[in-house]
Protein 1
Amino acid sequence: MLSYIITLLCLPPLCAALALFGRFDNNALHWLHRVTALGVGIMVVQILTHLNPVIPFQSTYFYVDALSAWVLMIITILYLAASWTARSYLTREEERGMLKGERWQTGRYFALMQMFVWTMFIVLLVNNLGLMWVAIEATTLISALLISFKFTRSALEATWKYVMVCTVGICLALLGTLILYYAQINSLGADNALSWTFLQENAHLLDPDLTKLALMFILIGYGTKVGMAPMHTWLPDAYAEAPSLTSGMLSGALCSCALYVMLRNLVILLPTVGSELLTGMLIFFAVLTVAIAVPFVVVQRDVKRLLAYSSMENIGIMLAGVAVFTAFSLKAVLLHMYSHALIKFVLFYIAGTIIQEYQTRNMMRIHGMIKDVPLTAGFWLVGLLGILGMPPMGLFFSKFYTMLALFRGEHWLAGSLLIILLAGVLVGILYHGMRMLCDHPKRVPGGDLLDRIDTPILIILLLLSCVVGAGFENIPWINRLLDNAVRVIGG
């Protein structure tokens, strides 16, 4: 197992160095990126195959259990999809003048993407809350360079906001981590400093007052990285200005990674903080996050910002599921994390293709897609229905389970408010989406631009969402992994 982990962590930096400094032509760069992603995927499959979900793997620095394996699987699927669709996307960007000097840009993009994924892998594999914080901060620095990739004025402004807001949030998370370390020294001594497994075994011995203080900073700090309101202000700008492949990774992979770190910390804090305080805080932030997203969805004009506010809606649902903190709700959260990541990657990729086809991000200027670009329109329609939670897409089941968990937990007010707010999001997204599909065209598009390799990859992602989201109980390995991941979080 250790050899697989080391190989996994060596491949992306090696590819990044070769992409940035190697003398490769454009075709070789693309294949280098794809082969590296394939190698990483093989290593992840080996890790998942050899991992016993009941008995975690642990070494001096690394730790893999069912929870980290679940998120590792999500990020790897998106990483493979982004790697194999990058060629057609970047080529279209260059052909339409959105990128200049394609070879240099391609090498720089691949180097940054490899390092971005590498930092997320480190977050998932380390066994120390301090190293976990360092890795999550590294994701901020690398992803900032990806957001500013095109070096336009709006992209640089979005990057500046992203760095400032997320850095403040991560600093608050660092303060919470330091308070947790102080609580550990007071109660358990200085040995095994910030070791997750050690703290998890002895969490009930920590000082309740210190852990409550740590909870405030950790929840707000990592909540900023997740995109929780009111610390969400970086999210719409970053998702809108980044290249669409990057937007899909930010929404699907980085959001899942940040939520994973939050859950890891809550496991330590919950025994002494108690569920009442945690539930109250998370339900408040969940409802607030969805409530802020609704009006911006309704009045939105930018297609990628529409998807960004849709991400906020789904973040709020996941926070609500964590707030209930039952085995049923936590399994719903993990399923929602999986389906949201896959569907949102498809939507951001299709949004990028729409922008390339129509040369605008303004949805008011995009009409008649079903007639003009039927293949793109088909993926856009299925993706929108999926992100809204329509059956048989995976998000239908995870949303239903989360709402059911809220009412079972007697959170009647929060559940009712969320249903009303979700209806507002549904109306807003359907209004914009259907108008783009069915209205009379107002400008001539470039035709369907999806490459022959794009279509099967996007279909696979949508099918994976349906199959796992709807039938996880009939897939023994998936169901067992989910059950054990829930036990990691909830004991």
Protein 2
Amino acid sequence: MLRIREAIVVEGRYDKNTLSQLVDTVIVTTNGFGIFKDKAQLALLRRLAAERGLVILTDSDGAGFVIRNYLRGALPPAQVKHAYIPDLPGKERRKASPGREGKLGVEGMRPQVLEDALRRAGAAVLEEPAPAAPAGRLTKADLFALGLSGGPGAAERRKRLLRELALPEHMSANALLAVVNGVLSPAELRAAVEKIF
């Protein structure tokens, strides 16, 4: 079991149940879109962010990104890390049919996939040395130069890159920038782009 310093934010109780079998930390749910009206829950998230830091781990579907983007605007960016699960088709065992987009959510992910997502986000695993930050930082200008934002065909190129890196297809250029700056060096991103294009 991983002991993580930060608290983890997930969408619902089934996500929480799945994650609690893998990590030993505070896990808080947003109750889906309920977070939009729940001032007390948002205050709790702000307090946890200030005291421990937060890792936001939502599903990779459109609803998950709506919740993630709301929290991105409501919480101090320096106290929040974002973990992303890959887009995998399927349905959770407890459900009769797949969700609207036909993707597995946090509750349907294998434990190793969830652990990898948390580590890529930079979650502080206690009793392990902190991971070294990749050298150099990418900018929006780098993404533009690589054809991943701001130009014709950029959205399609970005989607292909996101598939190659096993990241959710709903990621914006800004979200991609935050993730690659946390887990890749500029050289690694350029190599991935050259491999695809």
Protein 3
Amino acid sequence: MFLIALCDDEARELNKVEGMLASYSRQHEECRFSIQKFLDADGLLSKVKENAYAPDILFMDIYMPGKLGIAAAREIRKMGNRCRIIFLTTSTEYALDAFRVEAEQYLVKPVREEELFPVLGRLLEEVGRERKKYLPLQAGNKVYRIALHDIVFCEAQKKCQCIYMADGTQHLFRMTMAKIYEMVSAYSEFAKVGISYIVNLEHIDSLSARELQMDNGVKIYLPRGSYQPLKERYFDYYCEDDLGGGNWGPYHCI
């Protein structure tokens, strides 16, 4: 089951997209959708914030009264929500802004099935792959199943490792940094920073010679000599992703 959110101030548009999703589901029996519709951005934001609502894919109009879709997407990202966003709009005016909030696609209305279905299929495949990426870690007698894409970073704290999650929660495990890195090193989005941190490149807001700004608001100061290799790793990760036809990263590689 995939969670789909639709946000548009026109009920007609909401019903149209819902109908296309139903058509897609009929053609792909393995895909089942749980759809929630919102007539304004504030209703969506309230649901995300208060009820920890985390849709897999969000279809959102850009031009809405009260709050533009771009502004709403920016707030969703600040909450640590990594849902796939597809903007539906009547103009290409905000295409660059859509790029900055890591939107997956920017479709101009009226949207047709032949435009939407290939994008939807690709995103559903990505979500399906991510759902298989979990880190099983034990604390005491309890085993936690940690979603890799929700890990912002891991910090060494004496003999323990603290994992900071996108929803603000933290998990403390008694194990070595080397052991955790061994478990995540097969995934290209994880990079080691000095001896105390492992960061998820997908959660980096900005990178300078002195510090990392993570999208949960935490700053990580870089040890001497770590900036250049980290910058190269960061660019390589997003360039590989872009060339492979995946997500839009902060940088588009030409």
